[in-house]
Specification:
The structure holds two protein chains of two kinds. Chain A has eleven helices and two strands. Chain A has a single domain, classed as ABC transporter involved in vitamin B12 uptake, BtuC (Orthogonal Bundle). Chain A is globular, with a radius of gyration of 19 Å. Chain A is mainly alpha-helical. In chain A, helix 2 packs across helix 9. Chain B is an alpha/beta fold. Chain B has a domain of about 120 residues: P-loop containing nucleotide triphosphate hydrolases (Rossmann fold). In chain B, about 30% of the residues lie in helices and about 25% in strands. In chain B, helix 2 packs parallel to helix 4. At the A-B interface, helix 6 and helix 7 of A face helix 2 of B.
């Protein structure tokens, strides 16, 4: 029998998953919405974020996990953003952002990143110390303070991304390019630079989610597959390229998946999430929300 | 103000504009007419750099701009009102206007004179562009272009899908701009509208200028219109 405290615990676990998933899926949705690129390598950007936080915590500043974590929070998005910009310039731009060829190209990028990490970081899954140790003591159980910080940081970053998209010049350019790239050019928008920025921003969001999740899971060179699958589920359920739909779907799927995983089993959670995609594709092929803004 | 010399452009391997040459003076309204597929829209898109030029020279205010990437063209003083409006439909009216203002990093207050031309838009600033009526959308498309403070305004079939009275009003507003020295290149299917406001008309067929005449001459002698457009005024 499921008790109230068990349900609360499952809900809290689900909220952590949803917050991190929202960051990852928002990046994927942004890239697809503006560039029409289905980025198969998106999960590898999450993995790179986790590897960078391990490197900062264990190698660079081994004695100070909090310092290493803070450094990684800055360094991971910068490094991964630069890698994404290089991939845009070296690969995506050369094939003119063709939707079909970019699928194959980003699949290649996935293997290049994954195998590079395997050769340098190795095949082991490595634990990463949380930057802070404290527990919130509830009447029924104690809960990791770090996980609550993850939720807060993810919400903060989502808010900042929302502000960038809705208030800034580059955000306006991104939204205009998403709606009509040719007309955007006729109003002075350097569309290729916007594409590079969007690809970098998407990768940066994924990298930060990798940094946040690494102390909860472990850093491993194959860890990109799960966030990629879940992000695709979220983006399809929310409506391809629809940012509001993406956030709503991330909340629903993240919390639902987390709760089912805690209360029943992680495998059942994945099965139900995948089934949900099939149902949404049958009932609402355009996703849960058809209109999108910003 | 605008000078095209032997400009050719192509969609892939197919050459659609063949050595087009014409000039457009400050304050002049030049009409471009022809049948569907004659290359009218292609002329405008080629000037904007949206279709690659194969050869030829394109100058604005004596500055050669044929080598510029498309996004650098508007800042040289050329604004474009595309066929079918092509507003950023999910952006608000204010954001659509801001897209025009940002071409020259102009402040929001610079939209005021443009909003004076189309006061109805002032009441719609917070509304998504896609929710406006057809006439209001066309006004916004023109207003968005005017926010770039153009020297040359390219208009592609502004009457498309509108009641004649609305078209009249928009074209009359556009015609006022000639007093401030704006040169206007107007692609138009409506013969009456074009003859009413244009100074000169280019008749094109298969990407080539076949005939050039003053609008008053074509009004008096419509034979070239019948030949190249297939309609009598």
């Amino acid at each position: 029998m499921i008790t109230g405290p068990a349900l609360l615990l499952a809900l809290m676990e689900g909220a952590v998953g949803a917050a991190v998933l929202a960051l990852t899926a928002l990046g994927l949705s942004l890239v697809f919405g503006v560039m029409r690129v289905i980025n198969i390598a998106h999960g590898e950007f999450v993995m790179l974020g986790a590897i960078i936080v391990w490197w900062c915590s264990a190698e660079l500043l081994g004695a100070h996990p909090a310092l290493g974590f803070l450094l990684a929070l800055v360094m991971a998005p910068v490094v991964v953003g630069l890698i994404a910009m290089a991939a845009d310039w070296l690969v995506l731009r050369r094939i003119n952002y063709d939707p079909e060829r970019t699928i194959v190209a980003t699949m290649g990028l996935l293997y290049v990143i994954q195998q590079s990490v395997l050769m340098t970081y190795g095949p082991d899954a490595r634990p990463i110390e949380p930057p802070v140790y404290f527990r919130i003591q509830l009447p029924w159980f104690g809960y990791s303070g770090y996980k609550l910080i993850v939720i807060a940081l993810a919400l903060l970053l989502l808010g900042i991304t929302w502000l960038i998209l809705s208030k800034s010049r580059i955000g306006l350019y991104m939204r205009a390019t998403r709606l009509d790239a040719e007309t955007a050019q006729a109003f002075g928008v350097p569309v290729r630079r916007v594409y590079a920025s969007v690809f970098a921003l998407g990768a940066m969001l994924a990298a930060v989610s990798g940094v946040l999740i690494a102390p909860i899971q472990q850093a491993h060179y194959l860890m990109g597959a799960d966030p990629l699958l879940l992000s695709f589920i979220v983006v399809i359920v929310g409506g391809l390229g629809n940012l509001r739909g993406t956030l709503l779907a991330a909340a629903l799927i993240g919390i639902g998946e987390g709760m089912i995983a805690v209360l029943f089993s992680p495998t059942l959670a994945k099965m139900i999430a995948t089934l949900l995609v099939a149902l949404v594709l049958i009932a609402r092929p355009g996703g849960l929300m058809r209109e999108s803004a910003p | 103000m605008l000078e095209l010399t032997r400009i050719s452009s192509a969609y892939g391997a197919v050459e659609v504009l063949k050595e087009i040459s014409f000039t457009l003076a400050a304050g002049e309204i030049l009409g471009v007419m022809g049948r569907n597929g004659a290359g009218k829209t292609t002329i405008l898109k080629t000037i904007m750099g949206l279709i690659p030029k194969r050869r030829g020279s394109l100058k604005i205010a004596a500055e050669e701009i044929s080598h510029l990437p498309p996004h650098a063209v508007p800042a040289r003083g050329i604004a474009y009102v595309p066929q079918g409006r092509r507003l950023f439909s999910e952006l608000t009216v204010a954001e659509n206007l801001r897209m025009g203002l940002l071409v020259n990093n102009a402040p929001q207050s610079d939209a005021e004179p443009v909003l004076d031309l189309f006061p109805i838009l002032r009441e719609r600033l917070a509304q998504a562009a896609g929710t406006l009526s057809g006439g209001e959308q066309q006004m916004l498309a023109v207003a968005r272009a005017l926010c770039t403070k153009p020297k040359v305004l390219l208009l592609d079939e502004p009457s498309e899908g509108l009641f004649p009275a609305v078209t009249h009003r928009i074209l009359d507003t556009v015609a006022q701009l000639r007093q401030s020295g704006v040169a206007i290149l107007l692609v138009e299917q409506q013969v009456k509208s074009a003859l009413r406001i244009c100074d000169r008309i280019l008749l094109i067929e298969n990407g080539v200028i076949q005939h050039e005449a003053k609008a008053s001459e074509l009004a008096a002698n419509p034979v070239p219109l019948e030949r190249y457009i297939g309609v009598h005024r």
